[in-house]
Write a structure and sequence with these properties.
The structure holds three protein chains of three kinds.
Chain A: H1 17-32, E1 33-44, E2 47-58, E3 62-66, H2 73-79, E4 90-98, E5 101-102, H3 110-116, E6 117-120, H4 131-140, H5 147-160, H6 164-167, H7 180-193, E7 198-202, H8 210-223, E8 228-232, H9 236-242, E9 245-250, E10 253-259, H10 260-265, H11 270-276
Parallel strand pairs in A: 3-8, 3-9, 6-7, 7-8
Antiparallel strand pairs in A: 1-2, 1-4, 4-5, 9-10
Chain B: H1 2-40, H2 46-50, H3 63-94, H4 99-112, H5 116-130, H6 137-161, H7 165-173, H8 178-207, H9 210-215, H10 235-243, H11 248-280
Helix pairs in contact in B: 1-11, 3-6, 3-8, 3-10, 4-6, 5-6, 6-8, 7-8, 8-11, 10-11
Chain C: H1 2-50, H2 53-58, H3 73-105, H4 108-123, H5 126-142, H6 153-177, H7 181-189, H8 194-205, H9 207-223, H10 226-231, H11 249-258, H12 266-300
The chains are: A alpha/beta, B mainly alpha, C mainly alpha.
Amino acid sequence: MELQFTLGTGGRVNSNKMKKDKDTIDKTLKRKHKLQAKEVKVFYDDFMAIKGIDMNIRANKITAFIGPSGCGKSTFLRLFNRMNDYVDGFRLEGEILIDGENIYKKKVNVEQLRKQVGMVFQKPNPFPKSIYENVAYGLKIQGIKDKNFLRQKVEDSLKQVGLWNEVKEDINKSALALSGGQQQRLCIARTLAVEPSIILMDEPTSALDPISTAKIEELIYELKEKYTIVIVTHNMQQAGRISDYTAFFYMGELIEYDKSKKLFTNPEKKQTENYITGRFG
Amino acid sequence: MNNIKKNRIKDKAFKVWGIACTFLGLILLCIFIGSILIDGLQRIDWGFITNLPSRKAERAGIYTALMGSVWILIFTTIIALPLGIAAAIYLEEYAKESKLSSLLEVNISNLAGVPSIIYGLLGLEVFVRVMEMGASILAGSFTLALLILPIVIVSTREAIKAVPKSIRDASFALGASKWQTVSQQLLPASFGGILTGVILALSRAVGETAPLIVIGALAYVPFAPSSPMDEFSVLPIQIFNWISRPQHGFEINAAAAIIVLLLITFIMNGIAVYFRNRWQSKFK
Amino acid sequence: MLRKFSFFQMRKLKETVIEKGLQASALVTIAVTVGIILVLSIEAILFFKEVSIIDFFTDTQWTPLYTDKHFGIITLLSGTLLTSFIAIIFAVPVGLSISIYISEYAPRSFRKTIKPALELLAAVPTVVYGFFALTVVTPFLQTFIPGLAGFNSLSAGLVMGIMIIPFVSSLSEDALHAVPNSLREAAYGMGSTKLQNAFRVLVPAASSGIIVSIILAISRAIGETMIVAIAAGQQPRLTLDPTVPVETITAYIVQVSLGDVQHGSLEYRTIFAAGITLFIFTFLLNTISYRIRKKFREKYE
């Protein structure tokens, strides 16, 4: 499983005992630390956007990234599915590991990586196609053609996000006709359909009304049983409500990273305290 | 006070002038179309469309020229469409900022400004002579395809550019490759815009005369073409030929043929505008 | 798992092949330019082996189709410049007025309907305009210009002007439209009328866009063929008189193409020599306008 996104030339040779030991260590590590960043620096041409971050993110937990605009939290999030690759002048130093595997190695297949690491964006961005096509897209591009399988998978995914009952009659209608909140749940369903193990969310509720936001938050909370979730948010109440861990970023640096309860009630650093009490940002 | 009054009068006068200018061209166009309709409408009947060319003005028809135009249009589309769309996709989605891409950029902008008759000279030398196609439909289609290529590329790029970035993000984030994103999201989403550009480009091609004269298309072709290697005439050349004859009967024929040509052009433009409007409302 | 590897590997291979194919299509455009330059220069070089380049630029007659051959390109060039000049003199003031009216005076809904309508003027095939010039405009002008010949540069130029109006008005309007509203408000705030505002503030602010539109219109007029071939005549003549027949570079190429000229003959090569002259002119104009446009874009982005 952990090698799924590398393009190996064959199976691994397991005869070596050292290797076996390393695997066991990796596996335990994996259970604890799904995502790891090691001395990560990000440059856009000459501008340093991330200034050396070390961080371990736990599996099956919700981790929230908070911080003022331009602090680098979105850039950092997008490192985990390599969405920054398309930005002109982007350059990375350091390592990003998923299940102990460096995802910026040459041999990594980016498309396969992204199948493992789903992403939900700030503004709901359904494709201008039917609801069905939106959810089935991720599977179809992997070459899956079995109609019954696709249909079942679409239904399951829509049920998972609680959208099935609302849209089952209109499954072939345009996704653009849905409300903003429904669209965002559709986008989550679309991500779930390809069975990722990690879901990145970039301010997924910032464009939504309070009721839709509540529904999505509830959904995110349910999803953590099966998925590792990292969520960027501007909304500190949201971070406090749903996340297990919270990381506070400022000016491209990770200032503080702790259990959410601890960070919001008793932060170690002055900067964190200033931010969460609304003194700046 | 006096000065302010003067300024206001000037302002009003310019407004009237502006309206006059805006409608000047359109009014002239209407006068012209009106006079052509008066001259040519009486001449249009089924026989005029289906008759072969003739020395006698009353018996001559536009059948061979019309068929020539249709053949040319089909082959021009077949050649220019895939080439133009592929080039546009490359420039918009694949090309990184480099010397090559900026060279392509300048070059396409320049090609769009090259007079059509120059394309005729290119076609004459390359397609007619070197590739030995002769003054055939294929040679004419290649020539016109190169002529409209910049238009197809530019309008396709505009259409692809108009697809929101969020669609690309969503597709990539689901693990789609670049080509999957292009072929399954961007092209369908920009289809209306591409179609608009292509139809406008083809409406330009259907009215082109000079480059086809240069490659040696004929004014008089006894039969409608039956293969892409046949000699041909097109509607505008037929019109040009009739205009240059002294007898009044041919002037009327020219007017009648112009009505047909304008009808084709305006219908194509109308369809293009229709698709543009429908497509533009899609992302709003 | 093995199957999966090969699936993604296959996909990678397919991606590379597709990208190369797309790139090749884009490179076709370069091939077209290279082709044009090669074709024109090769034939023109062969032409200049037989005709002195000095004669080409200084001779005042152009008679390659007669027994007493002269190759003075100036004769054709004067026809081209004269008809283009008439077209520009007519189209620029009108087009500019339209653009100012539409962007500053007219209601917004009007803008949306009138722009496509004006662009229709550019969609009319040029052979049709030629017919218009010959059968409507010339007879009409003859009623008050008695000496006007049946073929003349005046009516060809004027009709060409009508055709290029949308080139000027559309691009200039875009440029005016792009001027930030704050600039307008600042001027109105000081009590200026729309007219003063338009000419003292907006036109200067949008000047590069307007210049580009005019250059493109000139380039278009110089390369226009059918209108002049039909209405301006086919008599090469070095003159500034707009009432007599002239021949433009483009009309000459059409005239030769209609006849039966042997491939490889001197007559055949004259059209390439004429063509390269035309190409150089339009190439320069297009390059200048591209440069201005690029500079302008950088300024606002």
